[in-house]
Design goal:
binds ligand C2E, binds magnesium ion, EAL domain-containing protein, 280 residues
Length: 280
């Protein structure tokens, strides 16, 4: 466990994978085993409407659960998964798992939008579109209730192919959201060119929204998004003040610790049952 921890740390500080480095090989091997041995888990973070206060969706967030119970967070192993290509089986696992769970919840009457995160490397996979559609159709999950959260950097790696893949998914009815908006590059160009339904404002703007400049940026982004026919989610809503400001700025959806932290799958339904719509 100590050893693995050290590898993870090592990896975290040197995202460029050296395939001759035994430490790197160990975490990569460890991650491959983790997929097969059921050490990966998904937590689910709710999303609410800033208009009605109701829960409208949930985002699946991956964690690597050590046999000791300790959780390793995605920022520490996703870069390695991306660089080795393990991200493809990993995304496939996430999609199957999340869609399966969401179907169980649907059968209990819970009809929410399910968000999945998609990585750089996923968009370079020419089969991504078909792979996703196959999983969703086989599970009989409604395509229009699935939302893919794509980061700007993911799109930037290969804009032409990324656009083509996203267009295919969008044509099939799957929703596309631009994640972490505002912290990448060329954001406005993507708004112009990509088939998007939603824009997710990066939490770094939301944390300090009491600050005039941040508020001005968030307000402007909401305005642009709405003019383009996109709805807007703010992530990282940690307190009442941020919630109120976002609402007054016309932001559509909110996600963050003020509403709920990401929940273990076994805790989600309980949380949902006990949720009192935040007075808006
Ligand atoms: P993201 O998609 O932008 O997700 C939001 C991150 O912010 C999550 O971190 C979430 O736990 C955290 N967060 C949510 N609300 C708050 C808040 O109010 N305050 C603060 N301080 N943090 C908040 P997490 O789970 O560690 O995920 C980090 C990133 O890893 C995600 O950022 C996403 O880009 C990536 N990721 C997570 N799961 C997956 C996955 O299954 N596949 C892929 N490809 N990427 C994933
Ligand atoms: Mg996300
Ligand atoms: Mg984000
Ligand atoms: Mg992020």
């Amino acid at each position: 466990r100590q050893a693995r921890k050290r590898f993870v740390k090592h990896l975290f500080y040197s995202p460029d994978i050296d395939r001759t480095d035994p430490a790197q090989l160990t975490i990569i091997g460890g991650l491959r085993d983790a997929i097969n041995q059921g050490e990966l888990v998904l937590h689910y973070q709710p999303k609410i409407s800033l208009v009605t206060g109701a829960v409208t969706g949930l985002e699946a967030l991956i964690r690597w659960q050590q046999p000791t119970g300790e959780l390793i967070f995605p920022d520490q192993f996703l870069p390695s998964a991306e660089q080795t290509g393990l991200i493809n089986p990993l995304t496939d696992w996430v999609l199957r798992k999340a869609v399966g769970r969401a179907m169980e919840w649907r059968r209990k009457g819970v009809d929410l939008e399910l968000s999945i995160n998609i990585s750089v490397r996923n968009l370079l996979n020419p089969h991504l579109g078909e792979d996703i559609m196959r999983v969703v159709r086989e599970a009989r999950f409604p395509l229009h209730r699935l939302m893919l959260e794509v980061t700007e950097s993911a799109v930037m790696t290969d804009p032409v192919n990324a656009r083509r893949t996203l267009q295919k998914l969008s044509d099939a009815g799957i929703q596309i959201s631009l994640d972490d908006f505002g912290v990448g590059h060329s954001s406005l160009a993507y708004l112009k060119d990509l088939p998007l339904q939603r824009l997710k404002i990066d939490k770094s703007f939301v944390f300090d929204i009491l600050q005039d400049r941040n508020r001005a940026i968030v307000s402007g982004v909401i305005d642009i998004a709405h003019r383009l026919g996109l709805s807007v989610t703010a992530e990282g809503v940690e307190d009442r003040e941020a919630f109120d400001i976002l609402q007054s700025l016309g932001c559509d959806y909110a996600q963050g610790y003020f509403i709920s932290r990401p929940l273990e799958e076994s805790a989600f339904l309980d949380w949902l049952e006990n949720y009192q719509p935040i007075q808006t």
